[in-house]
Design brief:
Elements (H helix, E strand, L loop, with lengths): L9 E3 L25 E3 L11 E3 L143 H21 L1
Parallel strand pairs: 1-2, 1-3
């Protein structure tokens, strides 16, 4: 529905843009005075709010064949969004719990691609907003210069601190296990396999010296 006064609690395949075309629409209510609680291929307006929408195509330039719980309006808030493609420049075939609005906050986001320059096919609990803080992030790729296919609890915000980080990849490395920090003063109480090159050489040298001492003592 493109009419602003039309409301519906359940809408499926919602196409509001005038340039959007679809070969199959069911129960398409285009009249301004028509109201229905259940509509399929419902064309929502900018002022229409709903907690559950399926295949909602409200953006004029955004095209998608399947969208679930798409909240494109800037004033619309929802805790659960699936395959939400509201950004005009952002394209993705599958998004879960995508909170693109700047004022929308959520503790759990799956495959959230809000940054315009950031591209990724799979993101889990991605907190891209600068003011958003969370203790658990999975595959968080918010930094524009950082690239990685899989990150677990990646804290990219400069003010975010966490005592436990797994597979933190701050630079261009593709595989790091348990915190490979750069020059920043990042602290963590638990680090697994934190190898910095020179430390490896020192550890090997210490082990060789211990072996030599043991051999000399037994000799």
């Amino acid at each position: 529905m493109s009419v602003t006064i039309t409301t519906a609690t359940t809408r499926t395949a919602n196409m509001s843009a005038p340039i959007t075309t679809a070969t199959t629409r069911t129960a398409n209510m285009s009249a301004t005075t028509t109201t229905a609680t259940t509509r399929t291929a419902n064309m929502s307006a900018a002022t229409t709010t709903s907690t559950t929408r399926t295949a909602n195509m409200s953006a004029t330039t955004t095209t998608a064949t399947t969208r679930t719980a798409n909240m494109s309006a800037t004033t619309t808030t929802a805790t659960t969004r699936t395959a939400n493609m509201s950004a005009t420049t952002t394209t993705a075939t599958t998004r879960t719990a995508n909170m693109s609005a700047t004022t929308t906050t959520a503790t759990t986001r799956t495959a959230n691609m809000s940054a315009t320059s950031t591209t990724a096919t799979t993101r889990t609990a991605n907190m891209s907003a600068t003011t958003t803080t969370t203790t658990t992030r999975t595959a968080n790729m918010s930094a524009t210069t950082s690239t990685a296919t899989t990150r677990t609890e990646n804290m990219s915000a400069t003010t975010t601190t966490d005592t436990t980080r797994t597979a933190k990849m701050p630079a261009t490395s593709t595989t790091c296990t348990a915190n490979m920090s750069a020059t920043s003063t990042t602290t963590a109480t638990t680090r697994t396999a934190n190898m910095s090159g020179t430390l490896l050489l020192l550890q090997h040298a210490q082990r060789i010296c211990l072996l030599l001492l043991l051999l000399l003592q037994h000799a």
